[in-house]
């Protein structure tokens, strides 16, 4: 079985975002594998251990993303493909076209990814890739089992559970609860240093100019306003109620 | 002619026994030699001292006074009886033989009689302790071998007195009740049977004694009695240096494929001696916080299981039989490993981790060292557990999920919660009225105050930090903190088996300290204190390291601070493991508390060396405690027996555990939980 995992390197979830010239500042930031993508890597590892598989990790991004690939390789993946792309203007449409172009006709039986990236939160790329390739997709799975060419997945649907049967090849995205990602062992880290990472420049991939043009545009980026201290109303209950109504009208302007 | 036959028979029996004995002991030495070579420091005199104190002084045994006395008697009478044995053997061939001591022989006789009698008493008392009184720790492993020891030693001692008694009848000697009181009494009792019957009975009991002696000799290496042979060597070869200090792994060595210990022969030879030195006395398990609260981990079983595994695997590797004579010992229920040993060559060996020792056991240890502190033969349980954890974490990458998260948080943000590392100094915002400079904000400082991850990020521990800062301000101490430059000390990662992460942090920290020219470090965290003081030096740190209680006491003595205000509290004082058992600091915190007016110190039943762990050590703070009772609740219950108004401690982890414990018992209103720094601060300012 050939498994592909789509992976994005993101800020550590605890990093504070700061803007410089209207753009997100990456200076001195700790980068990690997008946590949902990490579930996808772990699931691929489990399938590899259970059924035997060759696992490839794919990412699109600047050269710093190599460290995320090395971590995934240390977890046990066999090889990696890195589409080098430095422009920040690419949107989900372009990136999914790039990915599809890079993996088309490579015979992957299963493509896994996170159900969204914790930075942009768009949750589009993996699904788009499946659409472009014309294979079925299941989003936000919490359980996956494969027997022969048949797979059963459970997905989280807003507090309910949906069980889906599907035939390989297909694409699935990982939701929290699918597994607990492993900690790379030292021999794993050592071996990862010697595993191959194939690098392709985004410009070298054969896609049309139309497929290369963004469909969305970022107009502005700004930080959320600082949280104001709350106000506690005091005094008689009647007085509090009338004050609250007045504040909602004049200050918060919600009624 | 009869004497000649007797002599030949004796030589045959003795020869066979000696052959078996040397064979069995040699096998075990070979098994130990399967281990890796240990690097022993050449401090022979110190090692001899340890042997004098712990073997000939039997010091640790007296942690249990009753058993200690019993063992002391057994130990010393054993040597006297050995001398008597030589005379007794010759008596079998030369009628009425005595050591040529002339008139002085009666004193030897007196000594031998009393030694034998006292040993018999000790054996009977030991039997009573195990089967009558049913001392809890002696019920941990009840098998035929334990019973055999009492029976054999009972026969061995009484047969000496009977042989000597019937000898007197045989020789028609008048019994001397003053110098041979016990055999004399036997001779008197049976005086009517006559010399011929006396002769027959003399030889019968002589043979009973000889056969018991040789059977016991063959039995010793094959049972817990092997401690008689190995304990002394174990104490002599014990790891020197600070207690509980862990072995450094060389990550530069690229040949290494296994980090930590994944198979029994990966332990060092010194570690393997521990197994055969174990006397199965159960003192370790009796004190273990995990065992006491119903978890699977039992330090004694850990050692015993690894010993049996070593014997089994060693036998397979060296093709030697560890059980002899095999028709008796090999096939009987006495040797659980025997059946497995037969099939060892055909079957695969059980895995050390997983089959012999479970991961559940390994992740229950708080590294509190109470087991090691108790062990009369100087066994070290904790470094073995950590070696096994090292294998799991670094070689296998297999560990509880909480541990994975812990390591990732430390790697990314250098604190256990993964909170942004740029918020480390944020605690300072709460203390506008205090002087807390960072190293970049002052020209010079005397002490680097290592706030630690708990002190920096944990709301409750921040209060300890504030109190200590107030104390330092009042004492006029020039100190500085690292602020956001501070990293994690790496101690917990090391105790959880992640030596790689520890060494990264340790080296970063040392570079940082050296760049700043740090000469003195003070911390409120006994874990950071211990690793800085004893473990960082191996990586190049040269600095004096203090725990805040040490300095507070120093400043009180120097008159820099005067705790004058009355603090009317009855304080149950809880010793932390890393300040207490690891660093032997028991008195300083008590002296500080005594110097505060109004404070009454209450001693919890388990205090000082015996103090039970709060449950947070060894990374257990970060791993969910699901099995059995919660350790912190047990410890708080022990404190509550004294009806204190406060539980005092010296460690941020302990404080968290104690305060959670009082909440679990719903007494947090009546019983406060505080660090010593906070109590001192109350006495200075409030």
Automatic annotation (TrEMBL), chain A:
It comes from the Bacteria. InterPro entries: ETF_a/b_N, ETF_b, ETF_beta_N, Rossmann-like_a/b/a_fold. Gene3D superfamilies: HUPs (3.40.50.620). Heterodimer of an alpha and a beta subunit. PANTHER family: ELECTRON TRANSFER FLAVOPROTEIN BETA-SUBUNIT (PTHR21294), ELECTRON TRANSFER FLAVOPROTEIN SUBUNIT BETA (PTHR21294:SF8). Residues 21-209 form the Electron transfer flavoprotein alpha/beta-subunit N-terminal domain. This is Electron transfer flavoprotein subunit beta. Belongs to the ETF beta-subunit/FixA family. Keywords: Electron transport, Transport. It comes from Neobacillus kokaensis. It holds the Pfam family ETF.
From TrEMBL, chain B:
Keywords: 4Fe-4S, Iron, Iron-sulfur, Membrane, Metal-binding, Oxidoreductase, Transmembrane, Transmembrane helix. It comes from the Bacteria. PROSITE patterns: 4FE4S_FER_1, 4FE4S_FER_2. The keyword Cytoplasm does not apply. Pfam families: CCG (PF02754), Fer4_9 (PF13187). Residues 269-298, 354-385 form the 4Fe-4S ferredoxin-type domain. This is 4Fe-4S ferredoxin-type domain-containing protein. It comes from Neobacillus kokaensis.
